[in-house]
Each structure stands twice: as C-alpha cells, then as structure tokens.
Predict the structure of NAD/FAD-dependent oxidoreductase.
Amino acid sequence: MSDSNLRKDCLIIGGGLSGLVAAVQLQSQGATVKVLDKGRGIGGRLATRRINIPNSGEGIFDYGAQYITAQGETFQSWLENWRQLKLVEEWNCEAKTEAEVKQPKYRGVKGIRDVAKSIASDLDVQTGTKVVSLQRHQDSWRVFDEEENQYESDSVILTAPLPQSLDLLKSSQIPLSDAAWEQLSGVSYRMCLAVLLMVSDPILMPYAGGYQVKGEKLDWIACNHQKGISPHGYAVTLQGTHHFSEQHYPKPLRDIAIQELIAAARGYLGNVTVIEYQGHFWRYSTPIDRFPEPFFTVIDSLYLAGDGFVSGEESVSSLEGAFLSGWEVGNFVVFSQGIA
Ligand SMILES: Cc1cc2nc3c(=O)[nH]c(=O)nc-3n(C[C@H](O)[C@H](O)[C@H](O)COP(=O)(O)OP(=O)(O)OC[C@H]3O[C@@H](n4cnc5c(N)ncnc54)[C@H](O)[C@@H]3O)c2cc1C
C-alpha cells in the first residue's frame, strides 16, 4: 500500500454533474475537497468524444446527455451563467419527454463536456482513479483505489450511479438497514447503446439535428454537425432504446446491435457512406425510478447522491435531478459537518 495519506475535509467519489456541484458548494464554504473519478476525463455522462479521421476531418460527438433543460430557479441561474460564458446555447431539437416540450433546450457550444470542465476549473479532481473500498477509521473515512492508494477524509459523498454506489457499500461491508437496502435498490436505470458514426456527407434532419425517433430499436438520432458542435466532420450519434440495448447487453452481441442501429437509422442517413463507427454501452443512462429524497445519509458522514435521487419536483430532467442532488448534499454537509 502506498504511503499517501491525504487528510481532506470531503472526498467526492464521481466527477459527474452531481459530484462537481457538491464539490463547488463545499469548497466555496471553505472545505478542502478532492474529487476522485475512474474515468479518463471528467463529466461522467456529460460526455463528448473526438474522432480524427485523416482526410475526412474531425468528428465531435456528444454521446451521453444530449441537451440541458432547467425547471427550477437554482438550476436556471447556473444555466444562465453557462450561457453568458458561451458554454451553452439554445438548441431547437425535439424534446425527449412531455415535460420538456415547452422548455428551452440547451446544447454545449463545443460539446456538453465543456460544462463539466468549467465547473471543475478550480477543483482538485483526480481522474483515472477507481475507488474499490471504504473503511471507517475512528472519526474519519479511509478510501482505497484499485492501485491500493489510500485517501483519508472527514466525510465522503458517493455519486456514482446508485447501483454502483450500493455495490461499493456492500463490498466495503458497510451496513444498511433492510428497509434502506430495499428502497435504494429499487432505483433502476435505462440501458443505452450509443453509436458514434462518422459519415461521408452532411445529413439533414428535422428539429435542428436532434430527433426523437422512438422506434423499436432506435430511440434518438443527433447530427452533431447540424447541432453545431462538429464543424469539421459529419458526426452522428445514435442511441438505442432501453429494451433493445438491454437485449444486446452481453458483449458478443454488441457489434451486431451496432449494425442493427445503423440499419434502423438509414432512413435519416440517406446514401452517405459510414467511414467509421464506435459503440459505447451505458449500463446506467437515465433513471427510471428515483429515490424520493435529494440524497441519502448512510452513516453520519457518508452520503449517497446523484441522479438516482430527486427532491420535490418529480418531473425535473435527469441532469437537473443530478444537479439538485449535488447541490443539496453539498449544502447539507457544509452545515452538518460544521464547515460554514
Ligand atoms: C445516452 C444518454 C443520454 C442522456 N440524455 C440526457 C438528456 O438529454 N438530458 C438529461 O437531462 N439527461 C440525459 N442523460 C442523463 C444525464 O446525463 C445524467 O442524469 C447525469 O449526467 C448524471 O450525473 P451524475 O453526476 O449523477 O452521474 P455521472 O455523470 O454518471 O457521474 C458519476 C461519476 O462517477 C464515476 N464513478 C463511478 N464509479 C466510480 C468509482 N468506483 N470510483 C471513482 N469514480 C467512479 C463515473 O466515472 C462518473 O464520472 C443522458 C444519459 C445518457 C447516458
């Protein structure tokens, strides 16, 4: 085991929207915060990828969250700030849910991951760090990553998709009451196979390049060129329905599933040639049921948060739910741990 033994006021596991917002809240009130994320980059499901193809340009793909909507005042004010910073702008794509039909929808100007990068700009975020266990040690927590590095902290907030956080509690032998297990493990997520396609020519789609197909296999198609984030490459994102993605979750089925999604998108793609494709399987994409509180306190200074939790307004989007969860757990830890 390494000698690194960092004393931090708060460790946040997960650098998606919820974890980053919690970190900003805590740091702005004087806490020392460190965010650990297993991914190569930050943002979690605020995900943008570049694919460079010699002679065919560079494709830039949003392949997780497609757009941002805000119902509540707090998230609206953050969104407005991102708009003023020219990180986001309005996008007239089709709405994915009834609740979003009348709401303005925003896209990242250069890709949605930039929003996460901006929130994290003054934070201590360590990527490429997968947390594998937690231990209570006297008044603090010891957190271990898969390289056996150890981090020590007064409090810990877990913001991975809820089933992954529950696995972490289980493997760390941290007890929860039967009632809490039952309720927390009732939170479920849709699966989503995303396909990133570089194509030879522009395609023209309705709704400014973002269209809810609602087919049996294909749920959503976005032309990132038309959307405005991929000026030098014809980059198209396809998203499979939950049912189709779930059926093709086993790894040997995924390439077949990618071909089927491309075939299902042909009507929108026209005669363009597919130059390259990549698949990304989201085991947890958007929550189906959410825990009816903004976060959950496991034991005094260990918390669960993320988009599996929702406070008050059931119809807020997944991103707004993640934001509110991070915001509320951050505020709670500030006061309950006597930081402010
Ligand atoms: C395909 C797709 C389309 C979507 N479209 C929309 C949309 O249009 N609008 C909308 O509102 N929402 C959409 N969503 C949902 C939205 O992206 C999520 O609700 C939101 O980003 C979740 O944020 P989060 O912080 O809760 O979780 P995440 O963004 O998943 O962040 C959790 C982080 O925890 C990290 N992590 C997990 N386990 C560990 C570990 N053991 N150690 C260290 N780090 C760990 C992960 O790497 C990840 O970065 C979409 C999601 C997907 C996948």
Q: What stands out?
A: Residues 13-19, 36-39, 44-46, 64-67, 96, 130-131, 159-161, 164, 168, 192, 194, 239, 282, 285-286, 306-307, 317-319, 322 surround flavin-adenine dinucleotide (CB under 6 Å). The longest strand covers residues 5-13. DSSP finds nine helices and 17 strands in the chain. Confidence is low (pLDDT under 50) at residues 1-7.
